[in-house]
Design brief:
The chain is of the alpha+beta class. The chain has 3 helices and 3 strands.
């Protein structure tokens, strides 16, 4: 799964050596790292191919492949997006 997930966050890891080393060298944990919340470079198309249907984020995401479903929490800071 870790190798499949790499294609989802590849562009983010290419822009941050620290995150890249952490992801590639530390066990089997997977995270969607974000370098710049205003310019998220996660491939939601690849995420859908691996079977993902939703994304949970603290960031306001603008992407043609996402549709906001709901905001949660005290200040509505957590968002649930559906991958189209």
């Amino acid at each position: 799964y870790k190798k499949k997930f790499f294609s989802i966050i590849k562009e983010e890891l290419e822009n941050n050596q620290k995150y890249s080393n952490y992801y590639n060298k530390w066990g089997s944990r997977v995270y969607a790292f974000v370098n710049d919340p205003k310019n998220v470079k996660i491939s939601f198309e690849e995420a859908k191919k691996t079977g993902a249907k939703f994304v949970i984020s603290k960031f306001d995401l603008t992407n043609k492949n996402l549709k906001i479903v709901k905001s949660f929490g005290k200040n509505k800071l957590i968002k649930l997006y559906k991958i189209k």
